[in-house]
Specification:
With 145 residues, the protein is mainly beta. Helix content is 4%, strand content 49%. Strands 4, 5, 6, 7, 8, 9 and 10 form a seven-stranded mixed β-sheet that branches. A three-stranded antiparallel β-sheet has the order 1-12-11, with no helix packed on it. It is globular. It starts with a strand and ends with a strand.
């Protein structure tokens, strides 16, 4: 599956190029509860090879019908300006119809506009090839539905 990088406005003082924009690998995923009782919805996420796990906003878990704070609790560091909490649950992540059941984190302390697809829960099931000069990236499932 081929995707195009998304051009976003950036703080020029925070980018190495000094340019007022950055290109980021964003995709839309569908999320389901494991039992498929709740309906799916689209959620825009960053494909982040530096993220240890998949991390989504707490409100997304609530929309799925999860009691977010009942999940396995862990501290969250590095992705926000302050320390926070993350709660892990099993959900189904679907990208262009390719589905994988994953343990993902939900946090009310995530202070960025997108969720994150990380190593555990995404990169362990999909092969990703970034090509920034061409402004595209490929995602291939390591399994077949």
């Amino acid at each position: 599956m081929k995707f195009w990088y998304t051009k976003l406005r950036a703080n020029p003082q925070l980018t190495s190029s000094g340019k007022p924009w950055v290109y980021v690998p964003l995709v839309d995923i569908d999320l389901f509860t494991s039992d498929r009782i709740k309906s799916n919805f689209k959620y825009r996420v960053l494909v982040d090879s530096g993220a240890d796990t998949c991390l989504f906003h707490g409100a997304v878990g609530e929309t799925l019908g999860l009691n977010v704070k009942s999940g396995r609790k862990s501290p969250m560091k590095g992705v926000t300006s302050k320390e926070g909490e993350v709660f892990y649950h099993t959900v189904v992540v679907s990208l262009d119809g390719q589905e994988v059941e994953s343990v993902v984190g939900f946090s009310y302390d995530l202070d960025m506009p997108f969720g994150l697809l990380g190593q555990v829960g995404f990169f362990d099931s999909f092969r990703v090839c970034f090509d920034l000069p061409k402004r595209d990236f490929d995602i291939t499932p390591k399994f077949s539905n």
